[in-house]
Design a protein that fits this description.
alpha/beta, Glutaredoxin, 3 domains, 7-stranded mixed sheet, 4-stranded mixed sheet, 18 helices
């Protein structure tokens, strides 16, 4: 795919790439530097063979304060990035210059820093292809309560500034991104693709405009979460909108605005969202799965069954990440939090739905209100939720690709009638649309659709994902710098999945295939295996330290509760007696004061004890890290010494053998009297 993109560049449009690399590159970025230099030289060679004007300038071994680095700062805004590197068990900050600028005419794309977790091949190809195009595709992000474009909010009282989400900043590198106001009809020809996060937060006048745009054939990526867990300001599907309170004006908060009818959107997409009847209205179920390939998360972050890990295991025949669509084909692992389930509506032959992501068989659904009731008492434990979950009910789809035609009247009868009436006319369009989704090697030309008759069914193309949390900035950081998450043993491709969704809907079929290319660097397997043993030993020690800390903290809290319980019993007894005997009131007041003093003293004592235990735990973890790093460093030095001294031994032995053989042959046939 990459070679095809380079070969298809316009020979009349010269492209210049300036790369800037500092002299001191940390170990974590050594592979990134190698990939950058190698790919730039390879791209230049491919372009030369096709007479494509691609000029590459690699400025290597630069000092962060040198002249070339200063020019990169002034001309392109490329500055040294401060990265946290780990050496001998300790972390330190280091300035690293590792960026590039791609320009063609007046068009320019700057890569300020090549992150260790993002494939260099993808960054370069995307930048080259972007400057080579006369104009960028336009992405419209619909304004909702999720506020992914950033802005201000008055929910809960007080002005709150909301930053732009990292996923939007990533999309801006490739698309012309624009906010879309759903209060008025959405243009059907202004945007190449729409993205809407939590459409359930739209009002009764706004949501129909979104539905009309989808019916009109505007490709749309939809992300709807029944229970946003980490995005606290976003209401769930069945929750009311947060009241917008202006603190500059007196009076109470106005009632929350009404929400639109999500059933109309689901009907248009041919979806049947599993939910349980509720007095508060629609409340979609939450999916759970008894599978966690990252056991560290259980004791470090209290992971439960509602943390969904989706990956195709080695040797497994099941396809949890669908290979039928370029959106999910080639992905390694995804992670979702408190996601919802999706089912295809019955008797909807007018639409074609492809499951992109689904859980394993040891899965099921739990009612929204059951989880919400547990959360009111604090963060529920995994054991508490397992009691409410019940037995597994089978695999649960959580992401769907939807394509086809829908009639203006969404009733099943009308849909069937429209489908029967237009079967012959729509066969070619359906086949083309199916090939576009199923074949990951198509180049975007297959996105052509048969024009729909103005009075007949209209083509739609959409992706529906029943989760929002998986786009959180945490996952953007995890994608960029996975080495900082070694303690969690977590490296998921959530952001890649979102980018693939937008690209495929926009008709860009090259990038999803390139993103799935993860360069494989040959390493010493024997060394890596032994180093992994040391790291596993370190991880086991950390787990033991954390469990000991949790146990000691729980015992300390129980001691406090027992001490306070004795005072509470006395207070409750005096309160009962005080109802008949007024003389007990003075004693009750004094005892309540003692209770407050005792509670405050115990809380201070617990806080001091907790801080001391945390210090001891962190010191033990730090020591285990240093020990593991020291062992790994010792192993590295051992192999370095072997690499220095072992290679000369074979040629020395061969040389000695040749020397001895030649000396022996020289003496053959010579009289002993002539030999000295």
């Amino acid at each position: 795919t990459t070679e095809r993109v380079i070969r298809q560049l316009n020979p009349e449009r010269p492209i210049v790439i300036d790369a800037y690399i500092s002299s001191d590159i940390p170990e974590q970025y050594a592979k990134t530097k190698y990939d950058l230099v190698t790919l730039l030289k390879e791209f230049q060679a491919i372009a030369s063979s096709q007479r494509v004007k691609l000029q590459v300038q690699i400025n290597d071994n630069l000092e962060p304060s040198g002249e070339e680095a200063l020019r990169a700062r002034k001309q392109y805004g490329i500055v040294p990035e401060v990265v946290r590197v780990r050496e001998r068990g300790a972390f330190k900050d280091q300035e690293v210059l590792l960026g590039a600028a791609v320009r063609s005419g007046l068009s320019k794309v700057v890569i300020p820093f090549f992150e260790s977790g993002i494939p260099v091949e993808y960054e370069l190809v995307r930048s080259i292809n972007t400057v080579a195009q006369p104009k960028r595709a336009k992405l419209g992000i619909v304004n909702t309560d999720a506020n992914f474009m950033g802005g201000f909010s008055m929910a809960g009282g007080g002005f709150q500034q909301i930053p732009k989400q990292p996923i939007v900043e990533e999309l801006e590198k490739q698309y012309e991104v624009e906010a879309v106001d759903p209060s008025s009809p959405i243009s059907t020809d202004q945007y190449d693709v729409l993205m809407v996060v939590q459409p359930s937060s739209l009002g009764p006048q706004q949501l129909p405009n979104l539905v009309d745009a989808i019916k009109a054939g505007v490709p749309t990526a939809i992300f709807e979460d029944p229970m946003p867990a980490v995005y606290q300001g976003i209401p769930g599907t069945g929750e009311p909108k947060q009241a917008q309170n202006n603190p500059m004006f007196g009076g109470g908060s106005p009632p929350p605005e009404p929400k639109g009818d999500m059933q109309a959107l689901w009907k248009t997409l041919g979806l049947d969202i599993p939910m349980q009847s509720s007095f508060s209205g629609i409340n979609p179920d939450v999916v759970w799965q008894q599978y966690n390939p990252h056991p560290k998360l259980q004791y470090l972050m209290n992971a439960n069954d509602e943390w969904l890990f989706i990956l195709n295991g080695a040797g497994e025949e099941e396809d949890y990440l669908s290979e039928q669509s370029p959106i999910s084909a080639g992905l390694r692992e995804l992670m979702f939090l408190y996601a919802g389930a999706i089912k295809a509506e019955e008797k909807r032959d007018d639409l074609k739905l492809i499951e992109l992501v689904r859980t394993r068989e040891q899965s099921g659904r739990i009612g929204f209100e059951k989880i919400q009731n547990q959360m009111r008492g604090g963060d529920p434990s995994a054991a508490q939720l397992q009691v409410l979950q019940g037995p597994p009910t089978g695999s649960q789809p959580i992401a769907m690709y939807i394509e086809g035609v829908v009639a203006d009247d969404q009733s099943p009868a009308a849909a069937d009638t429209a489908a029967d009436k237009t079967t012959a006319d729509d066969t070619a369009a359906d086949d083309t649309a199916a090939d576009d989704t199923a074949d990951s090697d198509t180049d975007g030309s297959d996105d052509a659709e048969a024009p729909a008759d103005a009075a007949g069914p209209r083509p739609i193309k959409a992706v529906y994902v029943a989760d929002v949390d998986y786009m959180h900035p945490f996952f953007s950081e995890n994608r960029k710098r996975p080495e900082q998450f070694e303690d969690l043993d977590l490296r998921v491709q959530n952001i890649t999945f979102v980018l693939n969704i937008v690209d495929v809907l926009a008709g860009e079929m090259n990038y999803p295939a390139i993103r799935s290319h993860e360069p494989q660097h040959i390493t010493l397997s024997l060394f890596e295996d032994q180093a992994e043993v040391y790291r596993l030993q370190e991880s086991e020690k950390q787990k033991n330290y954390q469990e000991a800390f949790n146990k000691a903290l729980q015992e300390a809290e129980e001691e406090n509760q027992q001490a306070v319980a004795k005072f509470r019993e006395k207070v409750e007894r005096l309160q009962r007696e005080g109802a008949q005997d007024a003389s007990k009131q003075q004693e009750l007041i004094g005892l309540m004061q003692q209770l407050q003093v005792q509670s405050a003293a115990l809380e201070r004592k617990l806080a001091i004890r907790r801080e001391k235990m945390e210090t001891e735990r962190d010191a033990q973890i730090q020591e285990s890290r240093r020990t593991a790093e020291a062992k790994v460093l010792e192993l590295q030095n051992r192999y370095k010494m072997l690499a220095i001294f072992l290679p000369p031994i074979p040629p020395l032995l061969v040389g000695a053998g040749v020397f001895v053989t030649r000396r022996v042959r020289e003496r053959e046939g010579i009289a002993k009297s002539r030999l000295r």
